Amino acid sequence: MSDTALPIYMQLAHQIGSEIRALYRPGELLPSEGTLTKRFGVNRHTLRRAIAELVQNGLLESRKGVGSYVLDTGIEYPLQPSTRFTSTLMELGHSTDTRVLELAEDRAEGGVARALRLGEGAPVFRLETLRSVDERPFCLITHFMPAACCPYLATEYRGGSLHGWLKEQHGLALRRVSSVISSIMPRGNDARLLGIGSRQPVLRVKSLNVSAADATPVEYALTRFRGDRVQLSVDF
User: Where's the HTH gntR-type domain (predicted)?
Assistant: First the structure.
């Protein structure tokens, strides 16, 4: 607690907040009031003001007679030209897993056809994946890709980094050119697969990814993020 321009309880809140981000996982219980007051050399009133500040900032939840629990503040996920979901999260220190829910040949219609610059009824692959981060559901993605650009997708892709597979198997490096973000209610089986309530909104991101070499549209993706697990960061 070195910033003497701040009240002691605010200095304490900053210090405890830093430790929460570095050392605690969501759902873990902070040490007791007695332990914390002794450790930081403050009285209970100062500690309680610091805890109240952290509750107001969304880092903690206090339960009477139990203590203070660490909340899941969400993963800051950057929306940027680079489109590598798996490598981006691994660089942030998270484990990831991709589960293929469905992979089928479909026909391009409406917004999908327009985004991919295809004629109505042109063959596309529709791939449904569930992405988990740190062993918990994170997002669902519906990928649409022209069948002509990745003819072996249906027979050879089995999970993992889709964009890594496209680059390795087809020499396709992708670049994001647009993303549209909105909040919607979960539809179909989305709530069950994401492990949320049917009335808990999700963040939907419609993205268009093109070939980095010649800007040909390669993937139109509809991503539904758990709203309580993500903070989308957009840099300009």
Answer: 6-73
Is CATH 1.10.10.10 correct for 8-70? yes
Query: Which pLDDT does position 178 carry in this prediction?
Result: 94
Where does the pLDDT of residue 16 fall: very low under 50, low under 70, confident under 90, or very high at 90 and above?
A: very high
- For the record, the structure tokens of 141 come out as 């993605």
Per DSSP, the residues of the chain read ---TTS-HHHHHHHHHHHHHHHH--TTPBPPPHHHHHHHHT--HHHHHHHHHHHHHTTSEEEETTTEEEEP---EEEEE-S---HHHHHHHTT--EEEEEEEEEEEE--HHHHHHHT--TT-EEEEEEEEEEETTEEEEEEEEEEEGGG-TTHHHH--SS-HHHHHHHHH---EEEEEEEEEEE---TTHHHHHT--TTS-EEEEEEEEEETTT--EEEEEEEEEETTTEEEEE--
Calpha distance 199→113 (Å, rounded)? 31
pLDDT given for residue 142 in this prediction: 98
Write the class of the CATH domain 75-234: alpha beta
> In the structure encoding, which two tokens stand for residue 159, read together?
């999970």
| Four-point Cα dihedral 62, 64, 66, 71, nearest 10 | -20
| pLDDT average, residue stretch 139-143 | 97
Residue 55 has pLDDT above 70, yes or no: yes
Residue 153: pLDDT above 70?
yes
What are the boundaries of each domain within the chain?
Answer: 8-70, 75-234
- Which pLDDT band, with edges at 50, 70 and 90, does 37 fall under? very high
